[in-house]
Amino acid sequence: MVPVLAADGAAVELADTTLLAPTTFEVGPGERWCVTGGNGTGKTTLLRAFAGTRSLTAGSVSVRGEPVAMTDPRHRRLMASLVEPVPVARDMTLREQVALVAASWYGNSTAAAEGTGRVVERLGLSALGERFPHQVSSGQSQLFSLALTLVRPADVVLLDEPERHLDRHRVDLVAGLLAERAEAGTAFLVATHDPALVAACDGRVELG
Amino acid sequence: MTGQAAVTAAEAYAGDRVRAVWHRYSRRGDRTSAGSRAYTAYLVVLFGAFFLAPALHAAGTSPALFSLSAPGAATSVSCAFTVTLCWSAQLAGRFWGPLVLQPFVLHVFTSTDLPPTAYLGGAARRRLRYAGTALLLASCAAAYLTTDLFDDLGTVPQAVAVAAGAGALGAVAWLWGQVRTPRDNLVLASAAGATALLVTLTGHRIPDAGTGGLWLVAVAAATTAVILARVAFRSLRTVDLARLARESSRASQAQTYVLTGTLHHALDLYRPEPRGFTSALFRPDGRLRGHLAQGAVRALRTPGRTSAAALLLLAGGALLAAGTAGGPALPLWAAGACCVYLGSGRVGETWRGLRDELTLPPLFGGRWRGTLARGLAWPAAAVTAGTLLGGGAAAATRWPQYDAHPADTALLAAATIVLVLGARFLREMKSNLPLSLLLPVMTPFGDLSGLLVVAWQFDGLVTVVLGTALLHAAPSAPVAAALAAAIATCCAWTGLRRTRSVW
Questions:
Q1: Is B242 in the same domain as B333?
Q2: Beta-strand relationship, A17-27 and A5-14
Q3: Which residue among B30, B108, B115 sits closest to A100, beta carbon to beta carbon?
Q4: Among residues A26, A32, A23, A20, which one has the least CA distance to residue A1?
Q5: Helix crossing, B449-457 with B459-473: angle to 10°?
Q6: % of chain B beyond a pLDDT of 90
Q7: How many Å apart are CA A26 and CA B271, to the nearest integer?
Q8: Cβ contact (<8 Å) for B7 and A70?
């Protein structure tokens, strides 16, 4: 079976600095893998390489057996990511923005409304749906970014420290949602420092 | 529903998906209220009633500023106008093109598998329609106000056709400037210039050079616009989405600055980052170079801006020479002063350094020792040299018709340079919008505090234009020079007060 994500000796060096040491692993459909390691060991660099925003200096990464190319609609169709900060609309409520992302995939169908409601509820944002981005806390803003990422369909999801600003209860909510999506066939590659998220994963890439 | 199945189902409905996003986005919370629309309409009515209508009436009852009745004159001027419009539109597209969207909406679209033509094409077509219409109306109004093309009913259709062709070409060039590479833009700019020259020469050979030449310009502009539009819209498929996201983010930030009354902060976002000459500020023995050399090195780190400054200063100097010699001609004089003013801001980064030094708390001891000399030496020297060079070149080619008072001409040019430097200092020392400007200014026509804010935004330019008008009205050159020195002193004092108000 072709792995959803594969890295083969992927490495990034900048002048004399190693941003990502050679790394090799494969992630299958429906698997949850985490990337761990100290600060500066290359977790975000690895995710950016899969997202197509960082070039490798050695080795390769592939998505469903093909090289990563952001300009390819098939790549954008397969992959959702929360690696870079997501721009938000200051004049739309959280629910409106999640619904807008859903509409960009499902149009005006009922699937858009159902998907929005499900993600907002599963991440505990129902009571905050009518608020604007400046009216929520850092943790709630992180949940909102996760909702924007997870409301869309994807075969593989890249997440950079999804536990950022979240308390234990919210981390468990996120882990539960990831498990639910993984059962439906979505693969995850998650850079994290959280032991609970690491324990919930099927595989682990240790950097540094 | 798995991701793959959902997307396969959605693929057939790309148009529906785009419409669904725009539909939801247009219904967001702070869309324009009826009140603010009414206020905009009120301002437009005020502008039309108190400025446009009297200006149109005056133009209709007085001789034209520029007569285009000479054979071939209309063709030459319309060609020059069209090609200038094309170049300006290309330049505008490089900084703020028709594809710029709100960053969130663009992010939503670019994260999908939709082709860029699906979500950018509609917005681009709509904006090009608006831009083309606005350019058509503005061109017609400008032609009516300044030329005699609308005096004779026989030339009206041709003039409108030229305005329509130029508007269409300008709108398409705006898109071209954004979606095509700098090399393609240079090719288009060169081709437009060559075509304009060819059309001008051909127009002069047409027997009925007045109207036939205008028809030729209109047809050439419209044909070029159609060809360019096809290529430009085809380029949407391969547009650089990452660059578009950066442009949209910067435009959104700049728009916020503009709407909050700090246009100068918005313009700062469009300054290029310095590059190169990283160790040129120091001599081989490790000591810092002199003030002039430091300013020159910093200017060379932004070659694009410095080249623009050189062109503006040379053109400004030539216009000043033409405007002040042979009896002062206010339009040329004011245009020259404006060019020198624009060039003085692009001549280097020392203005910004000076503002920072004067507005930030002093960290390294004395504030005044050498600060002004360090900050002002390069711009003052460069502006003076560039302007005199341009004026000297114009005089050497005997462009302006000199009278018997070259000393007066030199004195007036020097006075204008002093005035411009004062106005530039005033503008560059600007920081935050004074709260006092937000207080209502009640008049019989309502609250006009917005006009004060607009004047504050462009205070340097306003000072230059009004100052030039005052110098023009002075009875003699020495009096005009004294007046310029007084205005520049006043600007410098106000600029220094601005820096202190930040503390």
A1: no
A2: antiparallel
A3: B108
A4: A26
A5: 90
A6: 50
A7: 45
A8: no
- Our CA-based measurement puts residue B21 at a distance from the nearest CA of chain A, in whole angstroms, of 6
Between B6, B28, B115, which is nearest A92 by CB?
B28
Segment B247-273 mean pLDDT: 89
Q: Which of A131, A150, A139, A108 is nearest to B3 (CA)?
A: A150
pLDDT tops 90 at residue A75: no
Closest approach of chain A CAs to the CA of B3, in angstroms? 4
CB A71 within 8 A of CB A88: no
Average pLDDT, chain B: 87
Specify the residue for token string 């009896």. Answer: B327
E strand residue ranges, B71-223: none
Same domain, B125 and B205: yes
Of B298, B146, B169, nearest to B225 by C-alpha is B169
pLDDT at B6: 47
Q: What pLDDT sits at residue B204?
A: 77
- State how far the alpha carbon of A31 is from the alpha carbons of A92, A157, B57, B433, in Å: 34, 11, 76, 55
Instruction: Report how many Cβ contacts below 8 Å link chain A to chain B.
Output: 104
Q: Mutation target for A interface from B1, B18, B27, B108: give the one with most A CBs within 10 A.
A: B108
* ipTM, interface predicted TM-score of the complex: 0.92
* Structural domain boundaries, residue B146: 63-254
Total number of domains in chain B = 2
Q: Which of A89, A100, A153 sits opposite B6 (nearest CB)?
A: A153
Q: Are A116 and A138 in contact (CB under 8 A)?
A: no
Residue from A104, A130, A149, A155 whose CB has the most chain B CBs within 10 Å, to mutate: A104
Return the axis-axis angle of helices B477-501 and B406-428, rounded to nearest 10°.
10
Would you state the pLDDT for residue B365? 56
Angle, alpha carbons B387-B393-B399 (nearest 5°): 110
- The CATH label, of 1.10.540.10, 3.40.190.10, 3.40.50.720, 3.40.50.300, for the domain at A5-206 is 3.40.50.300
Residue B10 token pair: 């959605």
**Beta-carbon separation of A153 and B24 below 8 A:** no
- Tell me the three state secondary structure of residue B106: helix
The Cα–Cα gap between B448 and B446 comes to 6
Q: Does B2 contact A at CB distance below 8 Å?
A: yes
B157 plus B238 within the same structural domain: yes
> Among B30-39, B87-96, B290-299, B395-404, which range has the highest average pLDDT?
B87-96
- The whole-angstrom separation of Cα A129 and Cα B120 is 29
What is the C-alpha to C-alpha distance for residues B247 and B252, in angstroms, rounded to an integer?
9
H/E stretch holding A14:
strand A5-14
Looking at the structure, do residues B302 and B418 belong to the same domain, yes or no?
Answer: yes
Q: Do B3 and A155 touch (CB under 8 A)?
A: yes
Contacts of B1 in chain A (CB under 8 A): 111, 153, 184
Contact B102 A89 (CB under 8 A): yes
In whole angstroms, give the CA distance from residue B416 to residue A152. Answer: 62
Check whether residue B68 and residue B209 sit in a common domain.
yes
Predicted local confidence at residue B363, as pLDDT: 62
